[in-house]
Amino acid sequence: MRLGLIGTGRIGTMHARTLLNVDGVTDLRITDALPERASRLADELRSEGWAAEAAGTSDDLYSGGVDAVVITAATHAHAALIHAALDREVPVFCEKPVALDAPGTREVVEHDEAVRTPLQIGFQRRYDAGYRAARDAIRSGRLGWLHTLRAVTGDQDPPPAEYIATSGGLFRDCSIHDFDVLRWITGREVVSVYARGANRGADFFAAGDDVDTGAALLEFDDGLLATATATRYNGAGHDVRLEVCGSRDAVFVGNDDRAPLPSAEQGVTWPSAEPYRTFLERFRSAYVAELTEFVEVAAGRRPNPCTAAEALEALYVAEACDLSRRTGRPVTIEEVRG
Asked: Structure pTM?
């Protein structure tokens, strides 16, 4: 299978090597908005013994023939690149988000449903062993009825200033992973949110009409409550965890020996390993599993595990949180559906 890769930033570069290690993938065609970056990555991969070549543009990539395409370009380019792939009926994997707003995402959903070409959206936490174990514990009934979920996402270091302008904001860019995985593990839908945001760090967040720290209270359709907090300044390390608390038992995702959780208690030495520093470290295995399954989806051997329609539901939660933090009031999901 020949795959196309559009975008050669940090995650695109990692995905290139991951894809070339997947059984059935024979070679990779690579393009980027900056052609020299695509050429440089293709040269590196060939020097390592892989079959890879650069294409000047995405049109050149398709004209050379690809069986499926992986999109890891800048966020603002996602929707147009997805539409171009669907027009050619080429199976697509795209990192979240589908688009920067709900109308743009709905357009992609409608296009995908019309052509019925696989479009898998990248929410890699669905492939993390801890989140999968939590989902199994919930679905089995072992935890009893759930009363509280606490989701945490903390980046150790903020992104560059230029990233903020096109990121969609903290809730759409960062917390949306929590919103998606909370829906996925519980099988329930969020009905209302109340969110707040703050800026305690660099001025470029406020200048970009964003916040560097946020907290959201979510209410689900069965009355379950969840909190989701996020920050760009978690000095202890990259912190992604989930607490799932039920009437009979509880499970905790992300509490391994690399969790950045220094204890204030005397005599406690856990955790003792080097903390995670980036999301690429924290979710390396999940990314491999996710892309391996996409190759199966593109080949027609498995159903799509994460559709654009599901990504739209997570985006509605993020949009509601952003509206709530701007207005200072609770917001229902129906209010943002449009």
From this structure: 0.95
